[in-house]
UniProtKB/TrEMBL annotation:
SMART domains, per database record: WD40 (SM00320)
CDD domains: WD40
GO biological processes: axoneme assembly
Gene: Spag16
GO cellular component: axonemal central apparatus
PROSITE patterns: WD_REPEATS_1 (PS00678), WD_REPEATS_2 (PS50082), WD_REPEATS_REGION (PS50294)
Keywords: Repeat, WD repeat
Hydrolase recorded as keyword: no
Stretches assigned to coiled coil: none
WD repeat boundaries on the chain: 25-66, 67-108, 109-150
Protein name as annotated: SPG16 protein
Amino acid sequence: IVLTGGDDRLWKTWGFPDGNILLTGEGHTDWLSGCCFRPSGTQLVTSSGDTTVRIWDLSRRGCILTLRGHSRAVRSCSWHSCGDFVASASADGTSKIWDVNSERCRYTLRGHEGSVNSIEFLPFSSTALTSSADKTLSLWDVRTGVRVHTFQGHVHPCNHATFN
């Protein structure tokens, strides 16, 4: 299954490789910037220009949780490999680690001086990686919300970063 999100405020799942649309989800009030399956495959997370992060249940075909707390567009979202946490990165200069079970923000990651454009978890660890318009990348310990390392060297904004 392929998952997409677009400027039309919708997410879609597509059969692979035939390309048939399987499901469509609506509920965001602005463009979608990111989407990610829960490791179990039963749910997904989306991020949007409407400042929210939403959790969707595929069997119920609807939004089951809206996470609010960012003050500007949410640029990226990621699901932790354990399935209990979601991360979001925002143009407000922060990232958040959300506890899906308690439906609350566990940590707000502060330290970038510009928009945080992406966030990803290192699989099977407590480390997250952010990229920012401030031209830096940061590693975070998501158990404590503390930045543990900053990478510098880009001369323009960083739009995305990932682990191998």
